[in-house]
Write a structure and sequence with these properties.
- The chain has eight helices and nine strands.
- The protein is of the alpha+beta class and 243 residues long.
- The protein has one domain: 2-Layer Sandwich (Alpha-Beta Plaits).
- The strands form four sheets. The protein has a three-stranded mixed beta sheet.
- α3 crosses α7.
């Protein structure tokens, strides 16, 4: 009898997840799973970015445009409320006046503060290190927005149109960079990296930080890199060189 009840429960949960998709058709379970049931997300991988600020021009916004186009992050002429999954920052050395430019986005922390403070579990980290927001359980409390030391999260104030099927969004919920998880699960680089390499100066590199043979791991071994706010001990998945 117990086995039969558990089986019914599993069917009920699966069915509920199937109909709980947002307008895009994305199912809840797909957020935490990878390419297929046979190829689940693995903690053996740790996806990350390496950004070389010496190659990042102050007047280049290729990564921002690439992200906006990929996820249809339309503006409403109110910059203070528009989504900014990735933004450009210019850092000036007060002694030398040297200016460094770098993209700032969700850092996909190993120990993400946004996940710690979320009261519903809407903010979560996949086994492969990608930090996401489940829009079905996000109540818009914005605790995660306050907790994020990188100001990498946005709250959706407006009604949205023409959403992408692979990137569900919703008014009244919090959102941030997904590291283009829909592309990663198809063995593609995030849109920002692709745009930087094709229309920018090739300042961004994506790959598996845990794979010693990957190009990103080799580059991090060959030259020093830093975390932003490394004093917080978050072990970020995004690292910067030449800052």
């Amino acid at each position: 009898m117990t086995a039969e009840i558990n089986a019914k429960r599993r069917r009920l949960i699966k069915g509920a997840a199937a109909v709980a998709g947002l307008g895009s058709g994305l199912q809840l379970v797909e957020l935490a799973l990878a390419k297929s049931d046979e190829e689940a997300v693995s903690a053996l991988q740790r996806w990350g970015l390496l950004i070389d600020s010496s190659k990042c021009a102050t007047n280049c916004t290729a990564c921002v445009s690439g992200c906006n186009e990929e996820h249809n992050l339309e503006g409403f002429d109110r910059p203070e409320t528009d989504a900014q999954w990735i933004r450009k920052l210019d850092l000036t050395d007060q002694q030398t006046q040297h200016v460094s430019s770098l993209p700032m986005l969700c850092q996909h922390c190993e120990n993400p503060p946004c996940v710690d403070v979320c009261p519903t579990g809407a903010s979560f980290k996949r086994d492969d290190g990608i930090v996401l927001v489940d829009k079905h359980t996000c109540i818009g409390c914005r605790y995660c927005v306050i907790a994020c030391p990188y100001k990498a999260r946005s709250f959706v104030h407006e009604s949205l149109h023409n959403q992408k099927s692979y990137s569900p969004r919703g008014k009244g919920t919090v959102e941030s960079c997904t590291l283009c998880v829909h592309r990663v699960d198809k063995d593609l680089s995030p849109a920002c990296v692709e745009a930087c390499n094709t229309k920018g100066n090739g300042a961004m590199m994506f790959g598996d930080l845990n794979d010693a043979d990957s190009e990103i791991a080799k580059q991090m071994k060959a030259a020093p890199s830093r975390q932003v706010r490394e004093d917080l001990g978050l072990n970020t998945g995004v690292r910067y060189q030449n800052i």
